[in-house]
Structure prediction request, 358 residues.
Amino acid sequence: MSDAGRLAPDYLTARARFLAAAGSAGATLDHHPFPDLGPTGEELAIDVAWLGPADPDRVILVVSGTHGVEGYAGSMCQSRWLESNPAPLLPEGLALVFLHAFNPYGFAWVRRVNEDNVDVNRNFADLHAPPRNEGYDELAAVLAPSDWSSETQAATGTALVDWAEINGWDAIQAAVSGGQYGHPDGVFYGGTEPVRSHRIMRAFVEDRLTGADRVVMLDLHTGLGAWGEVELITNEAPGSEPFERAKAWWGDRVASNGGGDSVSAELNGEWMAAVTKWLEPAEVSAVALEWGTVDSITVLQALRADNWLHNHGDPTGADATPIKADLRAAFAPDDPAWADTVYDCFDGVLARSLELLG
Prediction:
């Protein structure tokens, strides 16, 4: 594998590569800086590269870094495609847009959540009357303990298994990852108000996308499923027109997280579901590309350790190095074969999208 397929060592390197690739491809660039800084004092920003007409009737939007650390793979896909397609010729009336680092804080600090400990993809619910998650309420202290000793890890791990054996493994996945709105220091927390990434996305959609008749959204994720395998996840119900359109376009890899056949639980507060409503009556086809890495228990353990580090430990101290290494390994494996597998799939899905909207 060439260096083009390697994941960047850090956010600063990933961002520089993306901006260079987008510039070389002739994209118009917009930057949305954050007041927060990265671990070495670097600027954090959502960067948008726009190819094609400013007032398109069809748009393909490709987003990386919704879940911070998952942006390493998504950024590689975006940059590698731009490098492989210098000055791409797009069909008339079609814009191809790459939004880089939707959650730049999580990307830079190797976290899944943002600067407020909020999961950006749970932040688009009705936050005035947020969904209840009674399963998480029962497990809150177990999932996010204030101590991370080996004894606590063993005891809370046993408690989670016991709860799953009583309530079912699907129930624990929904309780843990479906989104919760009552425990600000917990995992998969959706917040109490729209976070900065949310506000930037809404302004961007209302300013740039509302004139389009047809929109495809591809959100790039990692961490669920078997190594290197991909699922194209939609929140649309099986049998609905948008679900059947997605299946016809992208094949049997499409699954609904509300239909019981997905690697993902049904989620609250997904950003693509909100954007779909904002864009009505446009035809919107939206999927999250989810590539598997390691087993789900390892992923959850890495997330719990990182949650402890930022809420009760020292993110710049000695404990940070092994915890960050485990989290990165869970979501951005340093494996050339995995990276190539991810990119080849992404390239195929984007090519199919361009064909269908062309």
Observations:
- Residues 16 and 79 are 10 Å apart (CA to CA).
- The mean pLDDT is 96.
